[in-house]
Structures
1.
Amino acid sequence: MRRVYLDTNILAFIVGADRGDSLSLNVREIVYGYETLLLTSSVCLTELVHLIQIGKVRIPGCKDVRVAASKALSMLKELGIQISPITLAHVEALVDLPFYDDHRDPNDRLIISQAIADKIPLVSSDRKFEWYRKHGLEFVFNER
């Protein structure tokens, strides 16, 4: 069975108004394939809830942000996406991750460190994640 981490933007595409239309064919096969164990970082969940609360991700049929966030989390649970908490090993990997001038987002860096430490591919639409391949990140780019 293949394991992958899903980044926040992939989660937003799945649960938001987009309903997965922005997922590439390759990523759709990963997300909806029976051979894949889907994981996401607890950091991604907090980012997703924040994006729903500020209106950047809209959940169809939900005007109340609390209801929208609950529905989004339920949808992820129904898909069988498992939540991986941050551990000391992930933070230790973060210590060794270099800074790039154009990519200083602390949440992204922690998500990348988590994927590197766990040796699990990370699926994202963020092209900047490509920079971390040379530091051990196995990266699956969602080419939209």
2.
Amino acid sequence: MVGDPQAEEERTTARGLARYAYEYLEAAILVDETIGARAGGECVSPIPAYYLASHSIELTLKAFLRHRGLTVRELRLKYGHSLKACYRKAKELGLFDVFRQHENDEAALHLLAEINNAHELRYIRTGFKTFPSWAIVEPFAVRLHQAVAPLVGYKSFTKSYAAHAAPAAQ
């Protein structure tokens, strides 16, 4: 039955959220590689790439929160589409036990959250905007997914980013 809260709880799994997150991020990377490689794409990545990556980050965080026991209702009512709120709650529930934050990660998250504040990644709004560099968005989104996906039983990316590698043991 559509709108049945119990059915929604059963159907909206952490693994399913991780799958959607993976597919949105895979699409974001393809958009950036394809459209961003065209003339004029050197300065800022295509808007759809940012939107897809932002949505992927949201879904990855919600997969983690669902894994930690939050209900679909809580995710919808308390956290909505707020990257900042989801990230804050995920950190509170132990995200950093599985995810090693890089110094640029919060900058990527906050800039994405700001640029999408009024759904500006989906609907045009004139005026000055500050876009995060794709060089910090992609590594953050991929590494976050790589940290969460194994917890919920889903595959992740095999990419690695030299600038984000763990320091060598001494």
